[in-house]
Give the backbone structure.
Amino acid sequence: MKKRFILINFKQYEKASLDRARNLLLEFSSIDIPSGLFLGFAVPAYDLFLKREFPNLGIISQHVDCAPFGAHTGQISMDALMKIGITGSLLNHSERRVSAENIKCTLRRAGESNFDIFLCVEGAEEARSYSEMGARFISYEPPELIGGDVSVSTAKPTVIEEVVSSCSGKGSTVLVGAGIKTPADVSKSIELGAGGVLVASGVVLAADPVKVLNGFIEAVR
Ligand code: G3P
């Protein structure tokens, strides 16, 4: 299968934090991951250490900073993440936007360190400019659909195609997210040219998160 990506953002949902993050990861570790699929779990900063308990799960950060080890307060260090085995992070999520200058610096450091940045954007123009800057993963999420029941693939098919075409030929893979709740939302996203999806409430708040996630995995095959 073509390389696909499903990223589950735990946000700071109480249901997916601390001991409950551990329980969820334990449940997710029973999932059979097909070859060619990267299944990522973006856990809150205070739960990143769980990577040591679940070394085989694709645990990623929800944010990362450019600053290296040193006198920097309140930052999430890429170097420290890599030391605990975490090799990827979301960046510039609508709920955690950062400056273009920071993005540029973090993309450069990530490129030097073989660290995956899943860079969130809110439209095709932003996608084009960061793709030209060398972003390997562009995650398009319209903020107004986040957390709702109407999926990006239903509400914004044309924008998804624009984002995909604005990144094509530049080596970036496009992921899409917001309002994804069903396998049909996932397969439609793939049909529109995305390489994967970014999902939070549809999985994390579901009565049976493993069942929902297995449905999504079937839909990207
Ligand atoms: O990062 C994923 C997220 O912002 C989408 O949230 O709840 O609409 O799947 P949700």
Notes: Strands lie at 4-9, 37-43, 58-61, 88-91, 116-121, 137-140, 173-177, 196-199. The domain at 4-220 is CATH 3.20.20.70 (TIM Barrel). The CA atoms of residues 4 and 127 lie 19 Å apart. The chain is about 35% helix and 20% strand.
